[in-house]
């Protein structure tokens, strides 16, 4: 398979042909378009399966072929984990020269979900409205397009989220709730965000609107009544007037409460966290504590440690680390997340956790951050990884402060491999890489990399 989840055939002359929909182990006949002159890869125009791969799964997702979000859901789960580990994690590390004879076995087997948790694991769904063949629906966009695929039947989505979407769909024919079109800028409703707080099960819905219709107040009452059986703890309205594909508006005053509270309360590994409309939290409920525990256990926090948590969001890992350490310092560039982190620290009576609202690449150059002199570091960056010189600056800071270990959690093994090469050349040894599957079915793996300071 290629890294996008399509089948890939290697011909004896070294050329490759991409066969979307085919799986490793399938026996097929195909017609294909050869590569462009100078190119290496051709594309299948059609294919016929003579014998299906023994690793094919037929019952994991009925939408897998149509929606394109989970190309791996047509394989059995153990094969999916094995392939994703090799394609997404081993290959980029090898390309960076990090898997030499000495380091060949640093990549562990991928940690997957138990079979019974492969359904309904999402705690967040971002659904788009649309009218398909005259019928109103909420759904996901088909991979690499803005074509709507109705969400009904998506195995990742909990049933109550499907029920909420089904309840609201008929309202889409009301002009005060009509689907917004990015192309024409007509309509009202941009997205429906549904969230469920891990640990407590509290439910939230956010209606993101491009504009408010004059008669929205009348509709509001009917929406609230219709949603009553869903048992929402929070129903919010987010006014998002800017063009573009950002899911909601972060502008002050853009979110108001229609029903219940302004946020929901989560409990993660025994600590309480407030979730607002826009708060970042890992989307996979059963796998989040697995990921965090693995990173914190492998970091090996002792009572006297000073833990620096980079890209800390609302302080989830900072506070979990603070519970085991002498002091923890979280750094994050979104000021609102830092406010939430401070509130979360107070709510959990963790007075040994502090937070700074700064871009990491700038913070690592500051004297007060250097003076914190961490003994251990956590980094959990966004897709871009330790960007803007942060990898080099982190290597220097860890050396200067004599920090023992770094736990680097990454949602993008490619930028992880790039950063691992920089960190390795600044005196940190890559001890282990554990892939953790946060998105079964999708071509995605999270990794936890542990780096040790060389003696
Ligand atoms: C993958 S999230 C991790 C959040 C947190 N560790 C958690 O598990 O909930 C990455 C975080 O990095 C923040 N971020 C992105 N770029 C940043 C930068 N240059 N400096 C600081 N924070 C940044 C994002 O706002 C986001 O909260």
Automatic annotation (TrEMBL):
Swiss-Prot/TrEMBL GO biological process terms: methylation; RNA processing
Record-listed S-adenosyl-L-methionine binding positions: 282, 311, 332, 380
Domain of life according to the entry: Bacteria
Keywords for the protein's UniProt record, in alphabetical order: Iron, Iron-sulfur, Metal-binding, Methyltransferase, S-adenosyl-L-methionine, Transferase
KW Methyltransferase (keyword) present: yes
Active site, renumbered: 411
Enzyme Commission number(s) from the entry: 2.1.1.190
Molecular function via GO: iron-sulfur cluster binding; RNA methyltransferase activity
Entry-linked InterPro entries: NA-bd_OB-fold, SAM-dependent_MTases_sf, U5_MeTrfase_fam
Keyword Iron listed: yes
Enzyme class: transferase
UniProt similarity note: Belongs to the class I-like SAM-binding methyltransferase superfamily. RNA M5U methyltransferase family.
Protein name: 23S rRNA (Uracil(1939)-C(5))-methyltransferase RlmD
Native organism taxonomy: Bacteria, Pseudomonadati, Pseudomonadota, Betaproteobacteria, Burkholderiales
């Amino acid at each position: 398979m290629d890294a996008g989840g399509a089948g890939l055939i290697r011909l004896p002359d070294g050329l490759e042909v991409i066969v979307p929909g085919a799986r490793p182990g399938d026996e097929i006949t195909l017609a294909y378009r050869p590569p462009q002159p100078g190119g290496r890869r051709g594309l299948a125009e059609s294919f016929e399966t003579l014998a299906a791969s023994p690793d094919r799964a037929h019952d994991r997702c009925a939408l897998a072929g149509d929606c394109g979000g989970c190309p791996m859901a047509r394989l059995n789960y153990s094969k999916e984990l094995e392939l994703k580990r090799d394609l997404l994690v081993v290959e980029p590390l090898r390309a960076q020269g990090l898997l030499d004879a000495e380091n060949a076995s640093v990549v562990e087997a991928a940690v997957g979900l138990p079979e019974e948790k492969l359904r309904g694991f999402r705690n967040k769904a971002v659904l788009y409205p649309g009218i398909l063949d005259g019928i109103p629906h909420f759904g996901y966009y088909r991979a690499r397009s803005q074509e709507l695929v109705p969400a009904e039947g998506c195995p990742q989505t909990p049933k109550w989220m499907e029920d909420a979407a089904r309840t609201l769909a008929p309202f889409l024919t009301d002009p005060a709730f009509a689907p917004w079109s990015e192309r024409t800028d007509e309509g009202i409703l941009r997205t429906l965000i549904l969230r469920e707080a891990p640990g407590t099960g509290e439910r939230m819905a956010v209606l993101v609107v491009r504009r408010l219709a004059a008669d929205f107040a009348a509709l509001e009452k009917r929406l609230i009544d219709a949603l009553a059986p869903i048992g929402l703890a929070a129903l919010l309205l987010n006014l998002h007037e800017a063009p573009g594909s950002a899911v909601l508006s972060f502008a002050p005053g853009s979110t108001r409460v229609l029903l219940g509270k302004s946020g929901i309360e989560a409990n993660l590994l025994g600590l309480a966290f407030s979730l607002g409309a826009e708060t970042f939290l890992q989307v996979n409920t059963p796998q989040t504590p697995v990921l965090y525990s693995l990173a914190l256990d492998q970091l090996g926090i002792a009572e006297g440690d000073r833990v620096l948590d980079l890209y800390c969001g609302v302080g989830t890992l900072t506070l979990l680390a603070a519970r085991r350490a002498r002091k923890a310092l979280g750094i994050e560039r979104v000021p609102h997340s830092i406010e939430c982190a401070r509130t979360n620290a107070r709510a959990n009576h963790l007075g040994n956790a502090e937070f700074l609202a700064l871009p990491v690449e700038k913070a690592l150059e500051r004297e007060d951050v250097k003076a914190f002199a961490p003994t251990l570091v956590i980094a959990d960056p966004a897709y871009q990884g330790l960007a803007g010189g942060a990898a080099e600056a982190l290597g220097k800071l860890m050396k200067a402060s004599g920090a023992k270990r770094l736990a680097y959690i990454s949602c993008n093994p490619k930028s992880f491999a790039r950063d691992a090469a920089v960190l390795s050349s600044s005196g940190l040894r890559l001890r282990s890489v554990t892939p953790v599957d946060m998105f079964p079915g999708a071509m995605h793996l999270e990794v936890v990399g542990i780096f040790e300071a060389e003696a």
